[in-house]
Design brief:
The protein has helices at residues 6-17, 48-60, 69-84, 150-169, 203-210, 240-260, 278-283, 320-334; strands at 87-97, 103-113, 121-127, 176-182, 222-226, 289-292. By secondary structure, the chain is α/β, with parallel strands linked by helices. A 6-stranded mixed sheet has the order 1-2-4-3-5-6, sandwiched between helices. α4 crosses α8. The longest helix is centred in the last third of the chain and has 21 residues, at 240-260.
Length: 337
């Protein structure tokens, strides 16, 4: 996805959606009562230490850039972990063309919890590839170095793996979960080319949304995208595309965060608008999907935080408290559906 800035993305998505979207800080009018309003705090506990280790293991392979050995090794590890936690896995392979004509050997990893096929299903997803260029680094000599992507990639997969581990141990869940690791998300046009919005981002999710690998009758009711969910001092505002397509899902998630005790991490305020993996899910797959993504309103370097697309996106800047806030919120949601 092109995460240059929320302001830049707003214009592109306005054209896509045919609506006007505003920036951050506007208070929402959320008077909708949902099932989670009266739900008790769930007994399941999200283990942030375990999620941190899952994140660290991905980074131990090195940057998971497209067509690299680290990418292949990490793919096999992710698949094995989901299988260890009782999930049926599907590899959706595709040769996708990058902005520069490079053929990207892409694999979307789909891991489905087992159980009653008649249960409603929910998608939780994140991208697992790494940005090949640290093109937002304050030091221009680093621009052509790969990004470790501890937060911008590994953190979302880590949260999903920890959720899969917990779900396997507790069979009381009344919904099925499809975990999707999207590939080829971060091969978008480098900033040094000074191009405006293009279609070079989120290639894996676009392919998935137009080529789903299981019958429509088993499609999920809604989706939740996790993007950069392990950063320091993160706050997750309500993103614009999510509000346009799936305000009712935002209501569910933000209510779950409140009940779980993490409303400070999920302000009841509008964020910016971004073209991310959730856009093709909404547009092409017609699955209402939201994006849990941080917004750093006062950060001069990037609205996505100081480590975004820099060589500093490493394990030193992963915060277990943020992983806990997102993971426990999702457990609260899943186990009260």
């Amino acid at each position: 996805m092109n995460k240059k800035s929320f302001a830049a993305i707003a214009f592109a998505c306005t054209a896509l959606l045919g609506i006007t979207m505003t920036g951050c800080q506007k208070k929402t009018n959320n008077d909708t009562t949902t099932d989670t309003d009266t739900a008790a705090v769930v007994k399941n506990t999200f283990d942030a230490d375990s999620a941190w280790q899952f994140c660290d293991k991905q980074c131990a392979f090195g940057p998971r850039t497209m067509n690299s050995e680290a990418h292949e090794q990490c793919k096999q590890w992710i698949i094995a972990k989901f299988q260890q936690y009782g999930c049926e896995t599907i590899e959706q392979k595709a040769d996708l063309k990058g902005y520069d004509g490079t053929i990207l050997k892409s694999t979307n990893i789909i891991a489905r919890t087992k159980g009653d096929p008649d249960k409603p299903r929910i998608i939780i997803c994140a991208h697992w590839d790494s940005r090949p260029w640290a093109d937002n680094d304050p030091d221009s000599t680093n621009w052509r170095k790969p990004v470790m992507a501890a937060n911008d990639g590994a953190s979302g997969v880590a949260v999903m793996l920890e959720l899969a581990r917990i779900i396997q141990a507790d069979t009381t869940l009344q919904v099925g979960v499809d975990f999707i690791c999207f590939d080829a998300e971060d091969w978008g046009t480098p900033q040094w080319l000074n191009r405006t919005e293009d279609e070079s981002w989120a290639l894996g999710s676009k392919y998935w949304a137009q080529n789903e690998t299981y019958p429509k009758q088993f499609a999920a009711q809604y989706g939740i995208l996790l993007d950069m969910v392990g950063g320091e001092n993160a706050r997750f505002y309500q993103e614009g595309v999510s509000r346009y397509y799936a305000q009712h899902i935002i209501d569910k998630v933000w209510n779950a965060a409140r009940i779980a005790g993490f409303s400070d991490y999920f302000p009841n305020e509008e964020g910016g608008t971004i073209n991310d993996d959730h856009l093709p899910m909404n547009q092409f797959a017609k699955i209402p999907t939201i994006d849990i993504i941080p917004f750093y309103a006062d950060n001069k370097q990037s609205s996505f935080g100081s480590t975004w697309h820099t060589i500093s996106d490493d394990m030193k800047h992963i915060d277990k408290n943020t992983l806990k806030a997102v993971g426990q919120t999702l457990l609260q949601l899943l186990y009260t559906e």
